[in-house]
Amino acid sequence: MDIFQALPAQWQDESTRLVFRLAQPSDGATFYPQWKDPVVARQLGMVPAASLSAVQTKLGYDLGQAQIGAAGRYVVVKSGRPVGIVGFNDIDQTDARTEIGYEVLPEFQGQGLGQRIVAAMVRQAWGALSLNRVSAGVLPDNLASQKVLTHNHFIQEGRLRQFQRIGDQLTDLIVFSKVKNLDA
């Protein structure tokens, strides 16, 4: 993939049969109920969404980032229904790396979807995106997300102390990674 090349509008992971399509502002209604919840927003490393309009604006911005290959937010679809949303954040083609984020909607949690989604994201990063390193930052108390990453053979690299501001509080972040040439 060339630098500044648009990300694919949609892709399907053959192993999981999950479809990943670029999130559109109209998807805001699906994710706003979660993103306005203070507990969920904190786990995602953000402040609660102020309004549906704010979520739609964010998704519109993310769509623009995908058009230049800088980042991409995808709705995960299973059997025609959205089951989550994921992101390839800060795609760096020069250094062949990205950071991922992922969220499974509450009614689909506890079914192993998070593990399958992350595995599909790694395959996409290493394959179509031609990246070598995939990383994820997780809050220390988000044990479910840490379990998803370790299940997918991510290595815990360390703890960034008071690294991320959420609201008015600086929080630590645990960094995990998976490197194609080392952890495949």
From TrEMBL:
Belongs to the acetyltransferase family. RimJ subfamily. One of its GO terms (molecular function) is acyltransferase activity, transferring groups other than amino-acyl groups. This is N-acetyltransferase domain-containing protein. Gene3D superfamilies: 3.40.630.30. SUPFAM superfamilies: Acyl-CoA N-acyltransferases (Nat). The keyword Glycosyltransferase does not apply. Signal peptide: none annotated. It comes from the Bacteria.
